[in-house]
Design brief:
alpha+beta, five-stranded antiparallel β-sheet, 17% strand, globular
């Protein structure tokens, strides 16, 4: 549960196909001193007190997540609830509570106890458009426009499922083609964002290697919870899945139609075809 996917290209990275080599690299941002307050399994596109399409109470999502990850463990306060939904604590309930006390002490030393408690409550009381909640994972998130497509010469499939409509975010994960169960990086691959092949001149002429939400937030591959790994893409984004020794796979994320408002623009629209040809 995390806020934003890090879409930066790391130094020295390059795809298996040199034709997709990135032309621009950006420096890594310094690691924040205090952990973000949003859970890494929920890539929420934003917190808001105003209703938005598909918005749900963030507190409900966190409570649901904690019940799933820590059966029988009751958060003592809002900081506990947010941390338990954000981090993967190991050990007995007593050991988890002790670790929470350490985290609270460390963050309070920098920002103050009251500030951490107030920010935790403010975060939990907001409405969110969740991105990153997988189909069937939450009783509060109902998915439509889920697409599963088999990967050639592979026992796994790509699954695309929608996230925040306001932020035009779509998610991708891998599933076992036979069972439909999600899996974490089941084979060697690289996922790249590329310009639109139909109109490359209308987008930035660069490519960028994509990382999963979990890897983007510093979680080691072996520490990602079973079936939790996911990528955040954008509506209409074109991607290429590169696999060593195998044919690349290209796909374009669907565009969701947004309801128009009642506001009428004072403009005359010229009627022209979108595509022409012989």
């Amino acid at each position: 549960m995390k806020t934003k996917l890090a879409r930066k290209t790391a130094k020295g990275q390059q795809p298996y196909d040199d034709a997709l080599r990135p032309r621009k690299r950006t420096a890594k941002a310094p690691k924040p001193k205090v952990r973000p307050l949003l859970p890494p399994g929920l890539a929420s596109s934003g917190l808001s007190s105003a209703p938005a399409p598909g918005a749900v109470p963030f507190r409900d999502l966190c409570e649901e997540r904690v019940r799933e990850l820590y059966p029988g463990l009751k958060p003592r306060n809002d900081f506990d609830l947010l941390q338990l939904a954000s981090e993967h604590y190991k050990g007995t309930n007593a050991e988890v509570l002790a670790a929470l006390d350490v985290d609270l002490a460390e963050t309070s030393e920098d920002l103050g106890y009251e500030f951490m408690m107030e920010e935790s409550t403010k975060c939990l009381d907001a409405l969110v458009e969740p991105t990153g909640v997988k189909p069937g994972q939450s009783a509060y998130v109902h998915h439509k426009f889920v697409f599963v497509r088999p990967i050639p010469d592979c026992k796994y499939s790509l699954r695309l499922f929608p996230g925040s409509l306001s932020a035009a975010e779509y998610c991708l994960d891998f599933v076992d083609s036979a069972t439909g169960e999600p899996v974490n990086s089941p084979f060697e691959y690289e996922l790249w964002a590329v310009p639109d092949p139909d109109t490359p001149w209308l987008s930035m002429p660069i490519t960028g290697k994509l990382r999963s939400i979990e890897r983007g937030h510093g979680i080691k591959q072996e520490d990602i919870l079973l079936g939790e790994e996911k990528f955040v893409l954008r509506d209409g984004q074109t991607c290429v899945l590169m696999r060593p020794g195998k044919q690349p796979v290209r796909f374009t994320v669907p565009l969701r139609r947004v309801e128009t408002t009642d506001v009428v623009e004072d403009v005359y629209v010229i009627d022209l075809p979108k595509v022409v040809g012989p």
